[in-house]
Amino acid sequence: MTEPTGLISGRFRLGELLGTGGSASVFAAVDTTTGASVALKLLHPHFSGRPETREAFFAEARRAGALRHPNIAGVLDVGVDTASTEPVAWIALERAPGSSLAEHVGRFGQLTVAEAIAVLDGVLRALEAAHAIGLVHRDVSPANVMVARGKSGRVTIDGVRLLDFGLADAAGRAAIGADVLRSEQAGGRAGVIGNVEYMSPEQVRGAAVDERGDLYQAGAVLYFALTGRAPFSRSTPAETMRAHLETPPPVPSVMDSRIPRQIDRLVVRALLKDPVDRFASAAEMRTELATAATPTGAAADDAGRSSGATRVTAPKRRPEAETVTRVLGSTRVPARSPMAAHTAVQRAGAARRPVAQRRPSRIGAWMSGAGLAVVVAAIIGSVAASAPAVPVAIPSPTAEASASPSPPPTAEPTPSSEPVWTPPPVAEVVVPQLSLSTLADAMRTLADAGLEVGELVVVDSERAGDTVLGSSPEAGTRTAPGAVVSLTVASGFNRVPHVVGLSRADALAALQRAGFTVAIGTRPVAGVAAGTIVGTDPGEGASLALATTVTLLEAELPPRATPSPTPTPTPSPETGV
């Protein structure tokens, strides 16, 4: 019998596309060897062709392979299809019924409170299992949670599955890499990886992420399930990242007043900025959820369906298209709070140190003068208010005028026997030269110099991505140990320059200096001399990855219209004309 064609590894027959992300696409498939329905995750072709990215892809399967839980889509098998001209790496997963939470809400609108509680309960059960073996998911989002309705027509706990452990890692590691698979070492073109709508503040900063980062994302997923929108969504990724760092947690009942206050409190606590202030574990969060899921809580949601409660309805849309997990290398990362990277123990130690030993916070320094004035004024006022009333003799004008002032006695200077205290010299360090080094090297250099990395401003440039273009303060500046140094870093993209009207040689040079590969093309343009540079494709100002081919367009004369010949009349036999 002839082997069936069109099968992946001679085994899987592909069906509909279930979803796609930054590294892979997931298809419904049938395992022809067993007849089982599976979800087949295929690595994108530009990743499948590289051994290091295939290995990183399979690392996901190894991480999740030990997980067997009713609320997790388990890994069944992995492999590489080498029968075609290009290798195709794949991971076979248990087929989760239903659709992603993002698709479900986009199609049917936000969930009832009872359904949203069921979704969070299922997600927390899955996270408990992952955390128990030391795995932190770090990519919990509506796109990675599958939901299915039960016989009652409602989403239930049994219908919830957590997917995609591609960013999962041991607790305490940062989500940083050169691509969404984290296939390259930190010394490469690294950036923060994640779904910008659901990243915890510590993940936004590129700091270590532990189990509490997953609980932040779980709280954000609950907010989305209840309201139909992400909690900190803004118009740009940079604004969204800043909101994760600075904006107070949103309250779900502001969008829908039927949402119980217990749920409000749970969401807000999960979304607090400092991990210390969040739930300590998925189990603790589930306990709080169980308290909220009472007849006065979840059931009140259904009773309110016919009431006049205030509700802001989110527009139906496809949120999953806006919330893709990716390398966030071309955004302006907000500055780090001076205490953000400190642990609770370090903060407690700082609080116990004598005031004279503490270094003032950069953020709070601007308040010190005004604050001191207020404190001093308060002390003076307090003393004045509490001082006893003492009668004071008021001299008469005459007596005051007749009194002749006597000169004060001249004090003879006496040498002091105590040594004069001289303040110790202030330690200073010099900001090192960082320009044209990689971001990873610059971070190591700053750490070696006793300085901290501050704001990263990522800009388009002809330089390779993650090349440091400058610092603030500049190299050579003397500053205090521990000072924050901001870096300007190349994004790996650049904009197509203006070349219209230049000579071919100058236009070629301009495009090549901008970091692009150049091809020559023509465009018919009337009234312009042939060979004149009339534009590019893509056009001027387009932001493209370096080494992208840009076609330089030269004018060519449009083809002349050939006049149709006038037909010669045929003489008529009768008239001879």
TrEMBL record:
The keyword Cell wall biogenesis/degradation does not apply. Residues 290-309 have a biased composition (Low complexity). ATP binds at K41. Keywords: ATP-binding, Kinase, Nucleotide-binding, Repeat, Serine/threonine-protein kinase, Transferase. Its EC number is 2.7.11.1. Residues 488-556 form the PASTA domain. Gene3D superfamilies: 3.30.10.20, Phosphorylase Kinase, domain 1 (3.30.200.20), Transferase(Phosphotransferase) domain 1 (1.10.510.10). GO terms for molecular function: ATP binding; protein serine/threonine kinase activity. It catalyses: L-threonyl-[protein] + ATP = O-phospho-L-threonyl-[protein] + ADP + H(+); L-seryl-[protein] + ATP = O-phospho-L-seryl-[protein] + ADP + H(+). Residues 12-290 form the Protein kinase domain. The keyword Cell membrane does not apply. Transmembrane segments: none annotated. Residues 560-577 have a biased composition (Pro residues). This is non-specific serine/threonine protein kinase. It comes from Agromyces albus.
